Amino acid sequence: MKKVLLSTIALLVLSMMLVMPIKARTEEPYESRIEGVLMDPGKQWVSEDGILHIRDSYWLGTEVGTLGSSTYEDWVSFNIDLATGEGTLFGKWLLTFDTRGTSSGSAQGKINMVTGQMSGIFIGTHATGEFEGMQKKGTFEGYLLPTNPMSAVLNCEGRVTYP
Questions:
Q1: What gap in Å lies between CA 149 and CA 99, rounded to an integer?
Q2: Rg of the chain on CA atoms, in Å
Q3: Which CATH class is domain 26-162?
Q4: Domain limits, the chain
Q5: What angle do CA 39, 45, 47 make, to 5 degrees?
Q6: Which of 49, 119, 124, 157 is deepest in the core (most CB within 10 A)?
Q7: What distance in Å separates the CA atoms of residue 139 and residue 71, rounded to the nearest whole number?
Q8: What pLDDT is attached to residue 19?
Q9: Partner residues linked to 62 by β-bridges
Q10: CB 84, CB 49: distance < 8 Å
Q11: What are the residue ranges in the chain where pLDDT is below 70?
Q12: Which tens digits make up the pLDDT trace of 103-117?
């Protein structure tokens, strides 16, 4: 009886392993360079405490990196202290890789309008096409161009995970 029970359990475990294949997730380093231009400044106002609020400014550009070349779109919001020039940023981004698919996610960070410096974190949790199931996360550092503060350059690095 004990041998039959153990044999039955072993057979069940083996059959479950055949029915439920194990997906091996792979993770690789990720890096890219983004160059973007402000296309729409969004809604702006200054609160009584001297904070400039910008909502849904629209940036358009390119990203070149680990995944290839893509069109970069970003809808960014800012809160900037006009007395210091320091503030925060947060937004949603979308990368479109021609016929290959898309990747989208969010970002948040800090900005200094005096120096033009920006830094923060990003995460990409939605992807389509050949990127279906892919996720990426990491950090970015960049700056507004001194000659044209309506243009920005960002360098991103982190990890990309494939299903």
A1: 32
A2: 23
A3: mainly beta
A4: 26-162
A5: 150
A6: 124
A7: 19
A8: 47
A9: 35, 71
A10: no
A11: 1-24
A12: 999 999 999 999 999
